[in-house]
Amino acid sequence: MRPIPGVSLQRKLLLWLLLPQLVLWLSGGFLAWRIALQNGEKGIDQTLTQSVRALARQIKPIGDGLLVDFPKAAQDILEQDPADRVTYMVSSPPGRFLLGNAQLPPPPPVNVDVGEPFLYHTRVDDRPVRVALLEVDYGTPQARQRLRVQVAQSLTVRERIAQELLEKMLLPMGLMGLALSAVVYAGVLRGLQPLKRLEAQIEKAGARKRNTADPLPPIELTSAPQEVHSLASTINALLEAVARGQQKEKRFLNDAAHQLRTPLAGLIGQTELALHESREPPVQERLHKVLSAARRSAHLVHQLLQLARSESSVAMQTVDLAALAREVARDWAARAVASGVDLGYEGEEQLAVQGHPLLLREALNNLIDNALHYAGHGATVTVRVDIAGAGMAALAVEDDGPGVNPAHLRDLFARFWRGSDQPGGCGLGLSIVEEIALQHAGQSFADPVVPHGLRVGLKVPLSAAAPRT
What we know:
By secondary structure, the chain is of the alpha+beta class. The chain has three domains: 11-162, 2-Layer Sandwich (Beta-Lactamase), CATH 3.30.450; 215-313, Orthogonal Bundle (Helix Hairpins); 314-461, Histidine kinase-like ATPase, C-terminal domain (Heat Shock Protein 90). 51% of the residues lie in helices and 21% in strands. The chain has helices spanning 9-57, 72-78, 156-210, 226-277, 281-310, 321-331, 333-338, 357-375, 429-439; strands spanning 59-62, 65-68, 86-91, 97-100, 118-124, 127-140, 143-154, 317-320, 342-347, 352-355, 380-389, 392-399, 443-448, 454-461. It has a five-stranded antiparallel β-sheet with strand order 4-3-7-6-5. A five-stranded mixed β-sheet has the order 9-11-12-14-13. A hairpin with a 2-residue loop joins β11 (380-389) and β12 (392-399). α1 (9-57) runs antiparallel to α3 and α5 (281-310) packs parallel to α9. The radius of gyration is 50 Å and the shape is rod-shaped. The model has no long low-confidence stretch (mean pLDDT 78). It comes from Acidovorax soli.
């Protein structure tokens, strides 16, 4: 089951960097709004305090009465702006209307110090207002009386000023936020570039590995942060360990095959001599079984040796693939006749490719051997060399035998996989073909033939002098 990829690192970084910035930007805007309102309220409070004291000074006690020296012109000035209307009320005793706007509501139930302004919020005509209240004593000591002066101002202007101030602040704040977001985005992209380069190198190495048997080269980063260098070093250490393991496996396979060849050759020779010398049927039957098993083992050892050699690096040269295919087909002609198979060649007269002649010969030997073994008596086997397009040449062996189930076509190239129970095979021939194809920066293929049969082969790059389609 493939793991489900999570959120990308780039998206996480942008989320954690830009989201807090947006929250701080909104919080800063709200804080600026509150500060603007508070500063506006402070200005209104100062104005109201001065106004209520000035109005109180215009009220002069005369005996037991009051003289209000408040010209109508001053009153008109206070009330001329409907949006920023300033109203007042004079009452004595407190709450008993004498002058001004009788609609001003009374203050909240608190103790008000005489001679000290008291400020509070209320509503007039369903509009919020700020009110300054001042109480003073007048009259004779024998008949003291108290006077209340209230001056109210609408808060509409305060809110309008705060809104204008906030708008003027939000525009530069927004531009700064956008600029900062762009810088953060560019910084995240630049900071992740070493990871992108690392990813590209790994993908490139993986693609090269699919087309060759060479070990993966180490990852090289000339300039990258320390964390990326550490990651690359860890990957290189892993690749080195894998390469060492592959080399050990190849050496063991090669050494084991070499060690087995000599005793198997001796076993086959001694068994053949015993068959010539023995005349007893039971003994000959057993010796034939021993000889057959020894030959199968020798074939397996030969295949293991070829597999080990096909996985090693070799130098490529220009090879006439068509001439090589005809030569190999002629070498197998005698065995094909003995097996009752019609073996022939079709395709290009000449076709130059970049390859290694010994490896290509071994690949074709395995393809022909596989076809002769499984196509059956009376079958027709054809060796073909054609231009496959995209700068590649195809070397294939086609037969009209029983073929393979289409669901198992890719299994043909798996090591030790066999598509038939017929004796004699060891399941490595087509694996060697695939390894040789990878060594040539090509690929192996297997296709069914209509109405029945199988076409198996490999594609290798054309030489620069070869025709291309």
